[in-house]
Every structure is written in C-alpha cells, then in structure tokens.
Queue: 2 jobs
Job 1
Amino acid sequence: MKLLPRNLSGYQATISLFTVTACLLSSVNADNSTDPCAAIARKKIATFTEAKACLQYFPFDKEAADQTLDTVHKIVTELYVFKDIAASPPKTKGLSVVPVDLEHGINIIRNQAWNSDQEFQDSISLLLDKVHDAHLAYSPYCYRQFLFWQPIQLNALIRNQRLVVNVAYVKNDVWPEAKESWVGCEVTKIDGRDAFDMVVDYAVNNNGESKDVNTCFNNIMNTKSYFHGWDDGADDLGYHRFLPAQEVHDYTLRCPSNGTSPSKEQFDEPFTVSIPWVAQVPQGFHSAKDYWTNYCYSGHSTFRKRSLSENEAVNAAVQMLDVDELTKIHNNHVFDLTPPAQNAGPDSSEGEYVHFAALEGENSKVGVIDIRSFSIANEDRDAFADNFTAGLESFEKKGIEKIIIDLSSNGGGDACAGEFIINTFFDATPEYASDVKYSPFLERVIKKSYETDSGKWIDYKSEKFKGAEWYTHPVEYERGGKSVNFSQPITLSCESWDSSLTAKRYNNKIWKASDLLILSDGRCGSTCAIVASRLRLSHLVPAMGLGGVRGNPMQFASFPGGESERLSGFLLELQSLGLQNDPDAPKPFPQRADMGWTFRESYRPAKDSDGPFGDSKNLLEYTATNADCRMHFTDENADDIEVLWGQVAQVVLKGQCPLKEE
Ligand SMILES: *[C@@H]1O[C@H](CO)[C@@H](O)[C@H](O)[C@H]1NC(C)=O
Ligand SMILES: *[C@@H]1O[C@H](CO)[C@@H](O)[C@H](O)[C@H]1NC(C)=O
Ligand SMILES: *[C@@H]1O[C@H](CO)[C@@H](O)[C@H](O)[C@H]1NC(C)=O
Ligand SMILES: *[C@@H]1O[C@H](CO)[C@@H](O)[C@H](O)[C@H]1NC(C)=O
C-alpha cells in the first residue's frame, strides 16, 4: 500500500511532541491484560500478533466509515481525472492495467460488515492501489505508525546470466536469529513457491506504484542498493508501515560454501527458515486510549454531523476547518517512527536535490547529474538554480562530453523546477497540454480563485481563453467508453517561478541530445515522469532502464498522469477561498487520514504531426514508452553506485544506447 507521495523533502517526525503528551498521560493506569496496546507500550519491538491485536482493537464505527467513504466517493467521482478510464482502460502493450470500477468498489466496502476499523480503513487503501496510479492513494495514519520488518531483505541480481533473488542484508537488530551468513545466499523458494514467481506476483498484485511491472518490482526490491530518498520504502516486500497479510514467511536458501563467492555456484545443502514479521513499536502511547488520541483522533470527527444539521438552519454559522490539523497532515508531521537511515549514495545530504559527479579514470569524459527530487522548497529555488548552473559550468571546464541524468527513485515535485532543467539543456518548448475534470463545484472554486487572484488555478494558461474561461467552457471527451467533461487544454505557466529567480542561467551550447542519457529504475514519477518523457519524446534523449524483470520491456518513467493534489492541501485552499462550506465540497476525514489524487491529465504527442503540444486522445498515463536499453543489478554494482555509474558510462562512451525508433 502506497504512502502518499511526499511534497516536502524532509521527513520530519513528531516524536518530541508525542513524548510530551505521553508523559502527561503516564499516570493513567493501563491494564495490560485487557488492553493489547498497553501490553506493548514502551517496548521497542513487538511480535506481529501483538501489534495486530493493538491495531485491531479499535472497533468499526459505521458512522465514521460512511463519512470517510462519502469523501472518498466525492473525490473519485468529481475530481479524480482518471475515474472513467480506470473502469475501462485501453489495452496498452507494456502496461499491466486491470479495469477498476472505483464507485462499485466503494459500494462493496460500504456494504460489508467489518470486524475492526483497521480492516475497513486498509480496504480503501487497497482499492485505490488497484488502479496502479501512485498519485491515487488513501493513507489512514492511525494504522501507519508501526514499522513492520522481515528480518531478511531481498534484492534481485544477475548472476551467471540468471536473475536471482538474493539476500541483500539481514536485520538482526529486530530479530537476533537472522544470521549475517545468509547475506549473498540465493532465495530459491518463498512459501514453497518459486521465489522469483512469488516476487513478480506480489509486484503485480500488491504494489500500486506503477502500471509497469518492472517498476513495481524495483519498488518492492533493491531498496538498500539503490535509494535516493523519495520513497521510504514502506510498501516493500519486506518492509511495511501497514499490517502484513500473514505472520511468517518460509524462505528456502541456497548459500555459497564457506570461502566461495556466490558466482562460483558451489552451494551448501539448501535449507528452509521460517521468518516472522517483526513490528517496531511507536513510542508515544501507554494505552489504546492514548494511541487513539495521539495517532488517530481528528478535530474533524464531528464536522459532518454539525454541517448536516446546519444545512437545515437558515443563516447557520460558518463551520471552520481545523487548520492546524490539516497543516500537520499536509507537512507529513504524522509519523512517530522515522524510517531507518538508508544507503543513499555518495555525499547524500538532506536538502540536496541534485548532485553533480564527474567520473574518473577511463570514464573521465562522463559526468552524472543525480536528480533526487524536484520538490524544491521556495527558499531553495535560487540555490537550486545556482547549483545547477555551477554544476554544468564545472562539467564544461572539466571537458565532460557525455552526461548521465540519473532520475531513479525521483518522486517528482515542482513542475517548474523540471521545466527549468529542460530549458537549461534545450530551447524552451511548451509543456504538453493537459486538462482538468469538469464539475460545477470546481467551477466555483476556480472562478473564486481568479476573482481573488489567489490559489494555484491562476497559474494555468490556455491558448484561446482568458481568465477562468478555460474551465467554464468544458469539452466532452470519450474516456473508458463514456462521455466526460473536461476543461479546455491548458499548460502550467512557470512565469512567476522563473521571475523569482535571480540566479544566472546556463546556456548549453555543448551537449546535444545524443550526448545525454536518462538513467532510471522506472521509479521516476509525477513531475519526474513528465520531464523524462519530454526529454525522451520531444528532445530525443535516449533512456536506459535499470533493474526490473529480465526480458520484460521496461519504461523509464511511471505515473506521468499530470498533477496531483491531496485532500489536506485542497481543504486548506478551500478555506482560504472561503469555500469550505460549499455544499459540494468534500468533507474532511473524521480520523487522521489523507487522500491523494490526480486532478490534471497530460496528453502525449502521438506522432510528429501533433507537434509538441499533445493530443487529448493520448494520455501519458495510459500510453507506454520503453527505455532504449537496459542494465541490471549485479553483485558488483548493487551496493556501489559509483561502480554502477561507471558501467553505465562505458555503455554511453561505446554508443551502445542509441535512441530506438518506435
Ligand atoms: C504493562 O507492561 C509494561 C511493560 O510491558 C509494564 O512496564 C507495566 O508496568 C505494565 N502495566 C501494568 C498495569 O501491568
Ligand atoms: C569459514 O572458513 C573459515 C576459514 O577459512 C573459518 O574461520 C570459519 O569459521 C568458517 N565459517 C563457517 C561458518 O564455517
Ligand atoms: C547547493 O550546493 C551546496 C554545495 O554542494 C549544497 O550544500 C547545497 O545544499 C545546495 N543547495 C541546494 C538548494 O541544492
Ligand atoms: C457536459 O457539459 C454539457 C454542457 O456544457 C452538458 O450538456 C453535458 O450534459 C455534459 N456532459 C456530461 C457527460 O456531463
């Protein structure tokens, strides 16, 4: 299950805040025998069963559940741009999309008798995951506080021409029985099934990250070996924030004989170990009561009830949203436990968005631009642009002839930061056109935004229409066999972003498209996906896919849908426009939770005659563009990004990754 894509680079925890609350409550006597949360409070580690008992202690509440589903339903039907095409998606070679009728799914959830609130909440997350659009996600933070670990962590490597499932590292800090000697062992079976089949199945069915199987596969594996810092990996095969489906997995391991390297393939007798999920316990609670207060309770639990009765009253007082709560959610200050430090590549430091590395030795003519995030904080814009210019100037000075643009595990961010990078290399080209789903409610929002000259809507531009007219003159398109109204085609204007920069701009006269290479493990999402797609489709920069399932053509980008929004931010915007009580506005969730969705769909140019503008019939999200060449992880490069970049540099220098004709 996906966590919502982050739009801030820092993963700030709120431990200090929770600790204060917990201390105040420490005099409360929790009964360990009847309160399963009290039984594990203050422990570092709990068993799967203990954690499950705490998470499932909170009863299903029909009224809160209906309120939650009403909001999910409203967002899906009125605001989610792919709702209709998701129910009847086009068959596209290379994409694994199954039809998902979200309205039907919501009805099924609504009519089911749930045993606990956790099971109900997670069923919503699972439903949205099925669409395989990482922008569409539901996160009930109440049930995302434990960290669940499999004490052995896997990656996938090519070894002697075979793709093998391998033990990358063990977590004996959470489970002392995990042995260091298992590292490097091949996993031949998981739960009695062929290990590779099991992992691919899991990637297809349990990971909503992308419509490309290779990308989902990379997302659940290889996290330690290739991690840039976007996704904390909380939906990996062996690392979750949500309650796993079963307590124990059986692994059959085939280990190299003592003193031999794995590639020698001299194995000891295979053996099978049963390995449990282990839960890292959040530290801010003493009992179920304060677990609920600290992690689940929302000031919005009564928003709906009051507004219903107020609807009947004339001149009812305007109900205000809890801005502190929404801001906290929007800034991701909702987790007690921070994710563990990961291997983030060389010189990684918090707040560094882009890293320039000139390679050495036989690769000294090759430079790498490692772009980790486009979520540039407003106050960092100038430094970001300055650094980019300085980086390219230093490459120029060093005589760098070829550039690898590493976009792996980049979850996107600010579209204008992406635009800046494209325009630094090439002459400015217009952004691909896009549109927003039409609804009378959103028309009121967008009109108000123009009237008050505030909010994000005023940054969109249409060729033919002025002001809010791009939205008030809807167009009908066919989506999934249905007629649906959308806005006129628009593009995002980066004028105000650009004009805020004082930094010097780099004017590239050195590197042609064929001197550049996009490197991506497929986990280049959102803004990153749009930047990569434009570089590849419009500017003809070749792309190399990394990892994934061998022999399965792979894309270099995922969830290029367009642009996403989160309920927390959307409600804050409504409040600032004074529209939070609009009868059609989605109501806040009654518990601490957030939802994300794509609200803008980007077109893809189908052929040259479309020009760079794109065609409303071809959506980037529902078309596939494969990488031009491919590289896999091996024993040599999996834990050493410098080695990996060196190998990619050799491919570039030998001209072995030319642009493929489609
Ligand atoms: C509950 O268990 C914790 C340790 O897990 C212990 O510190 C605490 O005193 C126990 N409380 C009661 C009421 O037994
Ligand atoms: C492996 O061999 C070395 C000597 O080559 C020995 O010291 C070590 O104990 C052996 N390890 C195991 C697990 O047998
Ligand atoms: C700019 O580069 C400096 C030096 O490498 C680094 O410390 C800083 O974090 C960078 N700033 C941004 C916004 O990328
Ligand atoms: C689209 O909008 C037009 C009016 O602009 C309306 O007549 C039509 O019914 C709408 N279509 C749908 C599918 O809502």
Note: The chain has three domains: 1-143+285-334+429-494+561-624, 147-280, 354-408+410-427+508-523+527-560+632-653.
Job 2
Amino acid sequence: MSCFRFFLTFFVLSLLSLTTEAQNNPNYLYHICDNTTFIRNRTYQTNLNRLLSAFPNATAINGFYNTTSGEEPNRIYGFFLCRGDVLTTTCRNCVTFATGDVIQKCPVEKEAVIWYDECLLRYSNKSIFSTLSEMETKYLVGVQTDTDPIQFNEVQKVAMNDAVAQAVSVAKRFATKEANISRFRTLYGLVQCTPDLSSKDCDRCLRVAIGELPKCCFGRNGGRVLNPSCFFRFEIYPFYNGASAPPPTTVTTSPDSMVNPNGSKPRWIPIAASLSAVLGLALLSSFAFVIWRMRKSQEDKENSRKVQLLDLGGGNFVNEYSNENFHGERVGGSQEFPSIQLDIIHAATKHFCDENRLGEGGFGPVYKGTLTDGKEIAESCKTPGMLHGG
Ligand SMILES: *[C@@H]1O[C@H](CO)[C@@H](O)[C@H](O)[C@H]1NC(C)=O
Ligand SMILES: *[C@@H]1O[C@H](CO)[C@@H](O)[C@H](O)[C@H]1NC(C)=O
Ligand SMILES: *[C@@H]1O[C@H](CO)[C@@H](O)[C@H](O)[C@H]1NC(C)=O
Ligand SMILES: *[C@@H]1O[C@H](CO)[C@@H](O)[C@H](O)[C@H]1NC(C)=O
Ligand SMILES: *[C@@H]1O[C@H](CO)[C@@H](O)[C@H](O)[C@H]1NC(C)=O
Ligand SMILES: *[C@@H]1O[C@H](CO)[C@@H](O)[C@H](O)[C@H]1NC(C)=O
C-alpha cells in the first residue's frame, strides 16, 4: 500500500521537523541596554568577556547562576536564569546564545538585560543580587482578546495568585498553574522570580506585575510580563514542559446525530463498513488529525508571536526604545522574532493610559490606576522596578 508509505514518511518527517525545532535558537523577546557606555574601557570589556564566557559551562542551581568578574570600579555582576521547566540542555543552549547575542545588541553598555522565552541574562556594574530590579516592567501581550474576557479575567486572577503563593514558598521561586476557563478551554500560567530574592521580594515583584493585568491586558488571552527580577506568562495552550494536554476542542457527535432528516439511519453506513474502507478512513482521519494539529500549533504559535509591547512606565517608550531595538535586529535571522508594530503599541499605550495620566516623573509620565486589591497604582510606582523605575 504505497499510500500507507506516503503517510508514514509524512509522519516521520513531521516528527523530525518537531524535534529539530527544539534545537533552534531561543525565542528572543526583548532587551534593555543601559545608556551609560563603558566607552570600550579595556578593563571593563575584559571583565565582561570573562563573565560571559563563564556562563555556558556554569552549573546553575534552580536554573540560576550568578557571579562577578573583576575588581571595583570595573567589577561586573551578572546572572542568568532559565525558565523553571526547561531541560539543562535547553538552558545551556539559551544561555550560550544569549552571551553572544547580548554583546551584539548592547556592544558598549555597562548594564544590559535580555529576555528569551527560555532564559534571561543580566549584568551590571552595580550589585544586582538579592535585590529587586529598578528597571521598568515590560508587558508583551497577545493581540487576541478572549471570547469571554470577564470569565477569563476572573479565572486568571485566581490562578495567578495561586501560582504566586506556590512560587514564593519554594527555593526555586517557580510555579505553574492550570485552570479551566470553560469546559473546553484551559488557562496555563507560569510565574518565576530569580531565586536569590527573598520570598517577600518575589511576592511583591509578581503581585505588582499581576496587579497591572486588568489595566494592561484585560481579556487578552496570552502574554508575558518581563522584569529583570521576575516574570510570568499565561496562554490558553500548554507552553511549558509538564503541562497537561489541552482539553478537546471539538464536540464528538453521538451516533444518533447521524440520523438523516427522514428519521431513518443513513443506508451508506453498513455498505461502507468493509475492512478496507475502515482502514482508509482511519488513515485519512489520522492524516487529517496530523494536519489539524500542525495547523493548530502553527496558529497557536502565530498568536503567541503576535504581541504588543506595553510599557506602563510611560508613553516615552517610543522615544526611549526606538525602532532600532526591534527591527532587523535578531542576528540569528530566525522567523521567531516577534513583529511588534510601534504605532499599535503607541495607540494601545495611549488608549489605556491617557485618561489616567498624573504627571511627568524622572523616567516619563506617571499614571494612576487601581490595582485589583483597590490600591492606587501611583503608590506602587514608588516600589522599585515595577511601574515606574525612577
Ligand atoms: C541617558 O540617560 C540620561 C540620564 O540617566 C539622560 O539624560 C540621557 O538623555 C540618556 N541618553 C539617551 C541617548 O537616551
Ligand atoms: C577604565 O576604567 C579604569 C577604572 O575606572 C580607569 O582607570 C581607566 O581610565 C578607564 N579607561 C578608559 C579608557 O576609560
Ligand atoms: C565548556 O565546555 C565545553 C564542552 O564541555 C568545552 O569545549 C569548553 O572548552 C568549555 N569552556 C570553558 C570556558 O570551560
Ligand atoms: C550570588 O548571589 C548570592 C545572593 O545574593 C550571593 O550571596 C553570592 O555571593 C553571589 N555569588 C557570587 C559569586 O557573587
Ligand atoms: C556604574 O557606571 C555608571 C556609569 O559609568 C556610574 O555612574 C556608576 O557610578 C557605576 N556604579 C558603580 C557601582 O560602579
Ligand atoms: C478541568 O476540567 C476537567 C474536566 O472537564 C477536569 O478533569 C480537570 O481536573 C479540570 N482542571 C482543573 C485545573 O480544574
């Protein structure tokens, strides 16, 4: 049966393409280069190179590795953090890629932080260990709005709070959470802090970021929150290792529904029930299933890539991190680079921020908002690194 061979080949090929995909470059998300340059100071550069070259072979504990290089005033503090669920090889792959990528993106800066889906790398000339970052939090949110945003938000709030409570209680500072939005849809959430943070700081980092969700991302059914000290991600499809399979998206038809309008069972069923036809049907449906799965995962990926960058810290985003940070920058040339349209971001930021604008701070405008627990956001602007990293 040559047709069978064709399906087999097809199957093997699609499996192969899935496995090779896992070896690809990490999925770049965002980076920040501090604007204080080291003017190619030889000492600093040497220390930086030494720091970065130690990363790929370093033994991470709980996915985290921190070290310093050199002496004051040219000392560098650096760490990397891998997502809590990724394998050691994926972690190493991501970190190795990041060490090369970050110096291309921030060639002369003393401080930098770069995020990928699988890992995060950061260095600075200041001590950055065991302290909450003072950098602004970035929101990369899916462009799709959920079909039932109110229900989605309710489920999300409960699930994310559960995840935070779980994460702060373990040394790894990492937790995942699944929750049913409806019978056929599941929310998948992941939260993580750098494990050098105290559980109190981790809690604060995540809760302030999550508190922004109703404002930045109401009803959006996918997104990532990026802070150098903590991050989280939520999707309506499984995206981390160890996630349970998604619930069925189609309703199975009962045999009764095959009754034709006249009320009699369709006559073709017994006729078609020969062995070969059943075999053919099985092959055909598995073929259709494979196609469906591929298209589905492609769709999910497309959706996850269609993200907007929201910067709650200020409308100064467009000036501060201009196009050069986003376009044609990925050295690996991978298609996985999220395309982010600045005009959309600007519109979105404007849309949800203008009416809440309070005034200008050191970093740009300060916005007023209300956290889920009723606290005003303007107050939380003072907390390090969250809304307004002045
Ligand atoms: C760099 O930061 C300083 C303040 O820290 C600011 O005055 C200056 O405009 C910034 N430069 C650029 C190019 O953004
Ligand atoms: C590099 O840093 C050291 C220590 O701060 C300083 O003495 C030296 O002048 C700097 N070199 C340059 C080229 O800026
Ligand atoms: C890191 O490990 C690889 C392979 O194990 C080795 O080839 C390389 O020399 C090591 N690098 C350092 C800096 O130790
Ligand atoms: C890593 O961070 C911890 C926690 O702040 C700190 O105690 C330790 O000295 C750091 N390690 C290095 C090599 O700097
Ligand atoms: C880090 O570098 C900046 C810019 O050169 C400098 O102003 C600051 O004092 C340095 N911080 C430390 C702790 O060396
Ligand atoms: C979601 O619903 C399914 C049944 O529809 C159930 O088996 C599963 O335990 C639920 N998951 C959660 C996290 O509540």
Note: DSSP finds eleven helices and 13 strands in the chain.
